[in-house]
Write a structure and sequence with these properties.
Structural class: alpha+beta
Distance between the termini: 28 Å
Number of helices: 12
Order of helices and strands: HEEHHEEEEHEEHHEEEEHHHEEEEHHH
CATH architecture of the largest domain: 3-Layer(bba) Sandwich
Strand content: 25-35%
Helix content: 25-40%
Number of domains: 2
Radius of gyration: 20 Å
CATH class of the largest domain: Alpha Beta
């Protein structure tokens, strides 16, 4: 349930493992009606994807925008850190690649299907809840999954821009309202993700608590006129949100299992949401291939994935707290500030 990267990738791997598998992916929206702009994969993650399914990886790689540098703009100066190795592509291109691969392999994708009660599908051999942050599957079986939600105080908005940033770029900019943080990266020629983040106080001081989507774009274009270098910002359901860290005490119940954001989230400052979702799909497919007993396979899947996910969530927690507390670091000299930023969670992902 859910037609995001995790569901599609899982469908691909299971159909490759056995063409006789009957796999149906239920998705409310058309794949091209995706939310968001770009996704990011580290070089290490790309190696995992290439090993799992070379043909799918090659199709994805044809859309990659690659960079090795991180640029930190601070106090009118910029410092560059090299050797990081990331690639981005649009979420729409990613879903297009995965959707076509699914169809080529014979995976059934039912678009326009709204699942209101996952229990209707309980007689399937396996029900995969890949339905994202607002998971219907997780909510339906909440007494078994026992989810927890940690809503963070900062506000952020996910925008795009036509400016092609040559590196993963951070801006830290003050105005009369307070301090603004920007996380920006190119995901295809002429397109970049542009995330603006601020404290609740700064956001309210700017009057953005009353702003429409268009007013948010107008405000941010004016605020970052110099940084955008004449380029425009793009919107796609670009509403101000709080980030929420999702955790679940259990990832499976009976023949039902959670993957991706339905099971766990990690702050966007470590750029790992799609990576985690696809790696969940790879691990789940591997467990299902190794053991025909569904309950045993689901137990093995969680045992394999939970340590890696929780490790990254701990790093993400430290990272998001750094961005919540950035004001306290603004008196540092640029080299010290940059070092503090880059080592905030003792890992760059």
């Amino acid at each position: 349930m859910g037609g995001g990267p995790a569901a599609l990738y899982f469908g691909i791997l299971m159909k490759k493992a056995n063409p006789r598998h009957e796999i149906t992916i239920l998705e409310r929206n058309r794949l091209e009606d995706t939310f968001g702009f770009g996704v990011v994969f580290s070089d290490a993650t790309q190696n995992n994807l290439a090993a799992a399914d070379p043909e799918t990886y090659d199709a994805m790689a044809s859309h990659f925008a690659h960079w090795d540098n991180i640029d930190i703009h601070y106090g009118g100066l910029v410092i560059t850190s090299s050797g990081h190795g990331f690639s981005g592509l649009s979420r729409q291109a990613l879903l297009g690649v995965l959707g076509r691969r699914c169809k080529d392999l014979g995976v059934c994708i039912e678009v326009g299907t709204e699942v209101t009660d996952p229990a209707v599908y309980a007689d399937a051999d396996l029900v995969v809840g890949a339905d994202g942050f607002n998971s219907t599957v997780r909510d339906r079986y909440a007494e078994h999954f026992k989810p927890s939600m940690d809503e963070r105080p900062n506000r952020f908005v996910w925008l795009g821009t036509t400016r092609p940033f040559p590196a993963f770029t951070f801006y830290f900019k003050r105005d009369t309202h307070g301090l603004w943080r920007v996380h920006a990266y190119q995901y295809e020629p002429g397109r970049s993700t542009f995330i603006v983040e601020a404290t609740e106080a700064t956001w309210r001081n700017a009057g953005l608590d009353k702003a429409t989507e268009d007013q948010t774009v107008e405000f941010c274009e004016a605020l970052f006129k110099e940084e955008l270098q004449g380029h425009r910002l793009l919107k796609n359901r670009s509403l101000w949100r709080h980030f929420v860290t999702v955790r679940n005490n259990a990832w499976s119940y009976s023949n039902v299992v959670l993957v991706g954001d339905a099971a766990h989230t990690a702050h966007f400052s470590v750029g790992s949401g799609t990576k985690l979702a696809i790696e969940d799909a790879i691990a789940l497919a591997g467990a299902m291939r190794r053991d025909p007993d569904v309950r045993t396979a689901l137990t093995e899947y969680e045992a394999e994935r939970r340590p890696a996910v929780e490790s990254l969530q701990r790093a993400a927690q430290v990272s998001l707290q750094w961005f919540e507390d950035t004001e306290r670091y603004m008196s540092l000299e640029l080299p010290q500030f940059a070092f503090n930023l880059l080592t905030r969670s003792l890992r760059i992902t």
